[in-house]
Design brief:
Blueprint: H1 26-52, H2 54-61, H3 65-93, H4 96-114, H5 120-148, H6 154-186, E1 189-191, E2 194-196, H7 198-207, H8 210-218, H9 242-249, H10 251-283, H11 287-318, H12 324-342, H13 349-363, H14 373-376, H15 383-413, H16 420-456
Antiparallel strand pairs: 1-2
Length: 458
């Protein structure tokens, strides 16, 4: 199978000695997917558990919905924006497994630290450090999978890896709801270093899930980098800012996709951040009920959408559809849009839950099929950095603006915490429409780029 050539002229340098590739082993490759997915599940539990604890944190610390939204999204995205590119640059040149393990230690310690918070500022900084998890795991993980899988099978592998984020989000509700309920029954807990409320103890408990993940990741092997892009010496490394030149020369493809997929992310993050509070405020559910009923919907709806989209894109690519990783997300988000408008406005929580399952199924297709576009059109030595740029934008725009827009509408436009249903019916659908328009702009230049890559491939 021919390798992917860069769609631009890159700086000339003596190529490093080729490293012989081992025969492809599906079993080994999918075991790596399983290990990375396990890490992804725990990282999402650590970052999403706060969504279930909104009301007790607000009551204890005296916070507004806008402040809570800053803890849910902006705090996470802020450090990510600073660290994403340097960490991805490191992953493109050094052992990616150890980059991920370092991130795991930092994000699990930060989750534990979230339980020590006695005010907004401390909790804000603790949530900032959780952002290191995404800044290491996703770019390095995508890069590793690009070396473990053939091109036509990559969308399926990436969709499984990406889909585990929704499994983690659902487990954060299921496990967190059970933990918080049991801890709330016990009341404040006295530990050797202080007395802590149930929501603080919940942070402590979920941080311990990182221990088996660390042992699991130790067992996977760093793959040989394909396309002869092994950096053997410092002088062989491409310029640090080469990634910016590459994106600039292909801006008509990358910029609409970066921002378009980020708008889709904003819609999903906004729903994920505030749907638990919607069921608690509008339908009088407890945290345990949110975990029991909404948690499985997130797990199965989100995971099914991402994985189904990835495998469908793989089949479409194999059948010769060059733009499958873009057309499929467009169709799926159009299907999700009416359900996103309807679910917060219905009177029955069970009808809302059913509609929300459809929003999650269709709305998450871009995060498997769509995001796999980036490694397919990027040279190996820049894949982690391109993914990091996308995730930087997705987190700043999606993970920050998605929850914040819902909270701002609730606090300022509607002026009541009980208007969360109106905010959810307005903000996520608007983000979906913006994403559709942007991805449509990328379709034609993307087809041209793919055609150019195929012509330049030996």
């Amino acid at each position: 199978m021919s390798s992917i050539s860069p769609p631009m002229d890159l700086p000339s340098s003596a190529p490093p000695a080729a490293v012989p590739e081992e025969p492809w082993s599906p079993l080994r490759a999918w075991l790596v997917v399983a290990a990375l997915s396990f890490a992804g599940i725990v990282s999402y539990i650590d970052r999403q558990i706060i969504n279930l604890l909104v009301d007790p944190i607000k009551a204890d610390l005296g916070l507004s919905d806008v402040q809570i939204s800053l803890l849910q999204g902006f705090s996470f995205a802020l450090l990510y924006a600073v660290m994403a590119i340097p960490l991805a640059w490191l992953a493109d040149r050094h052992n990616r497994k150890w980059v991920i393990l370092g991130g795991l230690i930092i994000w699990s310690a930060a989750t534990f630290g979230s339980g020590l918070a006695m005010g907004f500022v401390f909790l804000f900084f603790a949530r900032m450090l959780v952002g290191v998890g995404e800044a290491t795991l996703s770019p390095a993980g995508f890069s590793m999978l690009s070396d473990y899988f053939p091109k036509e099978k990559l969308p399926a592998a990436i969709s499984v890896f990406t889909g585990t984020g929704f499994l983690g989000s659902g487990l954060a509700l299921v496990v967190g709801g059970y933990l918080y309920t049991r801890l709330a029954e016990m009341g404040p807990t006295v530990l050797p270093f202080g007395t802590f409320q149930p929501w603080q103890m919940t942070f402590f408990a979920v941080s311990l899930l990182s221990l088996p993940v660390f042992l699991c990741l130790l067992l996977i092997r760093e793959p040989v980098r394909k396309e002869g892009n092994v950096v053997l010496a410092k002088d062989d490394a491409p310029p640090a800012l080469e990634i910016l030149s590459f994106i600039r020369q292909n801006a008509r493809v990358f910029l609409p996709l970066f921002f378009g997929f980020s708008c889709f992310a904003a819609a999903q993050f906004g729903i994920g951040a505030w749907a638990p509070s919607y069921f608690i405020r509008m339908h009088a559910w407890t945290q345990l009920e949110v975990g029991q009923f909404f948690g499985p919907v997130v797990m199965f709806g989100g995971v099914a959408g991402v994985i189904a989209g990835g495998f469908a894109a793989e089949r479409m690519l194999s059948a010769g559809s060059k733009d499958a990783t873009l057309r499929l997300p467009l169709i799926a988000v159009i299907c999700a849009l009416p359900f996103a408008i309807a679910f917060p406005l219905v009177s029955s929580p069970w009808v809302a839950l059913a509609l929300l399952a459809l929003v999650l199924f269709f709305g998450t297709v871009p995060f498997g099929a769509g995001v796999s576009t980036f490694p397919l059109i990027t040279p190996n030595r820049m894949r982690a950095q391109v993914i990091a740029v996308y995730l930087l934008i997705a987190n700043l725009l999606g993970y920050s603006a998605g929850p914040l827009l819902v909270a701002w509408l609730t606090d300022n436009m509607f002026g009541s915490a009980d208007a969360i249903n109106k905010s959810l019916a307005l903000a996520p659908p608007l983000a979906m429409v913006a994403g559709l328009v942007l991805v449509l702009f990328a379709l034609k230049p993307y087809r041209y780029m793919v055609q150019k890559i195929e012509l330049e491939s030996p």
